Amino acid sequence: MKKHFCLGLLAHVDAGKTTLSEALLYRGGQLRKLGRVDHQDTFLDIDPLERERGITIFAKQAILPLEGAEVTLLDTPGHVDFSAETERTLQVLDCAILVVNGTDGVQGHTLTLWRLLERYHIPVFLFVNKMDLAGADRAALLAGLKSRLDDGCVDFGTDRAVLLENIAERDEAVLEAYLDSGEVMDSEVARLVGERKLFPCFFGSALKLEGVDELLRGLERFCPEKTWPTEFGAKVYKISRDGQGTRLTWLRVTGGGLKVKDIVKGPDWEEKADQIRLYSGQKFRTADFVPAGTVCAVTGLSKTRSGQGLGVEAAAEPPVLEPVLTYQLLLPDGCDLHEALGKLRLLEEEDPQLHILWNEQSRTIHVQLMGQVQLEVLQRLAADRFGLEVSFGPGGIVYRETIASPTLGVGHYEPLRHYAEVHLLLEPGERGSGLVFDTVCPEDRLDRNWQRLILTHLEEKPHLGVLTGSPITDMKITLLAGRAHEKHTEGGDFRQATYRAVRQGLMSAESILLEPWYDFCLELPADQVGRAMTDLQRMGGEVSAPETVGEAVLLTGSAPVAGLGDYAAQVTAYTRGQGRLSCTLKGYLPCQNQDKVVAQLGYDPERDMENSPDSVFCARGAGYTVKWSEVAAAAHVDSGLRLNREEEDALPARVSRTSYTGSLEDDKELMAIFERTYGKVAPRAFQPQKKPARTSLSERYAIREQNLGPEYLLVDGYNIIFAWEELEAVARENLEAARQMLMDILSNYQGIKGCEVILVFDAYKVPRNMGEVTKYHNIHVVYTKEAETADTFIEKVTYKIAKHHRVRVATSDGLEQLIILGHGALRVSARAFRAEVEQAEGQIADVLKHHARRSGSQSIKAAMEKAKKERGTELDS
Known about the structure:
By secondary structure, this protein is an alpha/beta fold. The protein contains 27 helices and 39 strands.
């Protein structure tokens, strides 16, 4: 019996993915003639836009018949601007082929795709393409795959005995069986592939059909099979329209089967499946019935949406990738705004990560998308499909907002014959956690149905922040209490109360503006490294130690999207075409110039009538408005939240307390160092704010009195190395030698200054690194753990120590300096710190000269102690 599986093709742009799809279909017998991208006659890139640009824009499917398997091949876009289309397709795959360019190796977007494949637990085969070109080194490429992707990457084109040994090493049970029999069963290999312990690698040239047959045989033998439930289920991954405008719902049947005229049910709708189409390229055939595992397009369904689960199938996880750029869409003179908006909504339906926004106050249309290429495609689609000749205003950044500390939000809605009150606890969450909703409200105080309705209203819309009107994120919102009226409460009343409670809480909190950051990979000639690092530092970026790749240098790190927006063109210009920049979305981090952005956008939260923070109360038969700052005092319900220390234990058991305590438990060794100095770190109860909190970094910070004790100096190791010319020169040849030099310099510095020195090095990119704290002579040296940068570690530590001691941080990182000041620490730029070190070296020289003139009755140590007492306190305020 033949296998049936769904196979996806993924790659960085220009890796040769479309050429490989042609080769697979040709060798599988589906094509009689090979098409080429440069000839604009490939089987799957059928849209005129795709053929003009030579890139895949829309995911498409083809039937790949093999001797022992029936394969549905899904070709996905490779350009980063259309990554959201790729992510949606991943939801229906059984396995994937990740194509890597043999002359470039693993690129930035390759890593993004790898993380997505890992998130969706998809087994992966790798095909390293373009091995016929000069510079393709098989051994070096395999080593790069192992180090940058996974150690389970195994070359399936090597000697059979070596291959079996490499496979067996991936699992103890397989290794025992191999040692007994000398063989490894195909079923065991398929199991390891399915468990993502093994990633078969094939090398070749798709254009010359080299290595393609080996890849096909590997897929037939080792692609794992799924079993499906008997009850109907399906997952929708795409919405499109055919040439006649018929709406197509693309789905994979994940249980039972689907027949023509079957009733398909959604959350609040049911419709009939009129036609089932099985596509291969542009052509399709109809089917009366499709079993589980089939990928098909269904007509007759008008309420479906991408990511939706049907039948027993659950809905897809929220997408990782989000648009980061926003533009105002400009329509031709005389064009009806609302008619054009309705047409553009159709494009948004087909691409959910293309956000079409209508601003009622300014009566303007805005679009949010991933990049410039997507903008050009949108312009062309609007013209071709709807005859709309649109243009775009200046671009901007899609910001997000969150809060710095917990706050209580109260919303009351009581016009005549209506009633609802809601109390919410808003807490900051981890970066990238999104919004989480929960309830701890007792059902004897508010009926379960009303509580569910409140949670629904929290989830149903993007709630806007109060700094710029950007959507909020990275927060947990918990329902604490509420009240309904037996006669007068309607469903819409709780909608109003819930929206106002969120808004009132945000107005009472300290808000933080978040901006998107890119992870970047910049390859350029060695003589341009200084220019690039200066540019990246100027835009507020973080750069790891340079790596030498052949004759070029590779810089990796992260930087704000606002700074990297058009930097690729600048790189091409100043390197004369030899440099290459690739960027992938990292996530949202605090905005470096919050005050400037807030002032430029000029958003006034109290004038936004659609998102009012005020509440409506009733007296003498008429409703009246109560200002947001006075709502809590006028509320009818006690929230039940105890905000003082004595009553902390009365907090509901499920209310998160992580926001009140803070901890360095993950860094136990360093924690011990700190606690020996200033004692145990006790949790603090949350204290209510007596006046509206500041919402701008420009307002004055409170200065707390610090205890006496040793001064702490934290040094961002790599930042200093690449800021000091002599250390940077050494680092280019030997990074370890540069680290050793800096450690020796700081040891001497500590000897004369007498402060506690903590030197921090990034090790966050080292897989499975647990972090390390060591003592080097008289200083502490910290290597951060995996997924923790030196910036993050320093910010966390300064927050703790600055409460009790005077703390200085040596760094030239602009964002880090801003956060350090907010924590009450003092900062020293790399240049100023260099001057301090030189001064300390001069003092050491003086001590040694003084000792040489003495008869020997006074030791060097005593002389240095005397120098320390005489120098006084030297702090850079």
